[in-house]
Design brief:
The chain is built from no helices and six strands. The protein is mainly beta. Strands 4-3-2-1-6-5 form a six-stranded mixed beta sheet, with no helix packed on it. Strand 2 and strand 3 form a beta hairpin.
């Protein structure tokens, strides 16, 4: 399997799971659209801060509102 899990990074806290089994990450308006292998979509105003491909992790950080 090639999908990854997306996590939100919060300073001073453990990374929080945002979406499992992410298949696609697409720039969307002023954020990102993430889609899992089942077609479930989530949109978040965030930036990618790390891709850990061997560990199947996408680390996101929320953009200020």
């Amino acid at each position: 399997m090639c999908e990854a899990n997306a996590f939100l990074r919060k300073p001073g806290k453990e990374d929080e799971l945002f979406l499992e089994m992410v298949d696609r990450v697409v720039p969307y308006e002023d954020g990102l659209l993430l889609e899992d292998i089942f077609g479930k979509r989530k949109i978040i105003k965030a930036k990618i801060v790390e891709l850990a491909l061997v560990d199947h992790k996408i680390i996101l950080e929320k953009e200020p509102l």
